[in-house]
Amino acid sequence: MNDRHVALIGAFYDALGRADFAAMERCYHPEVSFGDPIFQEVEGRDRVMAMWRLQLGVRDGLKSEYQDVQADEFSGSAHWTAQYTFSSTGRPVVNEIDALFRFEDDLIVRHHDEFDFRRWSRMALGRPNGLLFGWTPMWRKTIRDRATQELNGFASSQ
Q1: How many CB atoms lie within 10 A of CB 73?
Q2: Which residues form the signal peptide (predicted)?
Q3: What are 11-27's pLDDT values in tens digits?
Q4: Can you state the angle between helices 117-125 and 137-157, rounded to 10 degrees?
């Protein structure tokens, strides 16, 4: 166990829970990359932070809890739960997420979140879209493309 990296992951999630963007940014390496089932690959600290600002803007009342933090000199992991109202639909979401991290210069240089896209889609989008189409590759591409367009617009406006 690497206590510095365990503390770094904890500091990141504590800051996320407070929507403290400056504290979140201090946890990330300038060359950080982020990925998840929706935002597949986001490169660079400015763009990753724009993604978080966008995400927190479409999530009403985000509550996050984290547990099972583990880390060594090079990598780490955690499980976290995000509870929020998806603003586009007004639907409540409780998303269970497994996070993987890589470290460089005692900062997070790679952050990857993994969750069940189909389950998320049913909660966030409801019926019929989330229930009927949440498992299809075409629907996933539609959601991913929309998220990328929103991020591009949001990042260019900052």
Answers
A1: 11
A2: none
A3: 999 999 998 999 999 99
A4: 70
The CATH number of the domain holding residue 24 is 3.10.450.50
Query: What's the predicted TM-score (pTM) here?
Result: 0.90
**How long is the chain?**
158
Boundaries of domain holding 110: 3-157
pLDDT, tens digit (0-9, with 9 covering 90-100), for 99-137: 999 999 999 999 999 999 989 988 988 876 655 666 678
Q: How many whole angstroms separate alpha carbon 48 and alpha carbon 155?
A: 10
Q: How far apart (Å, rounded) are the C-alpha atoms in residues 103 and 151? A: 25
DSSP the chain: --HHHHHHHHHHHHHHHHT-HHHHHHHEEEEEEEE-SSS--EESHHHHHHHHHHHHHHEEEEEEEEEEEEE-SSEEEEEEEEEEEETTTTEEEEEEEEEEEEEETTEEEEEEEE--HHHHHHHHH-TTIIIIITTSHHHHHHHHHHHHHHHHHHHHH-
d(CA 68, CA 6): 10
Number of domains in the chain: 1
Neighbours of 132 (CB within 10 A): 13
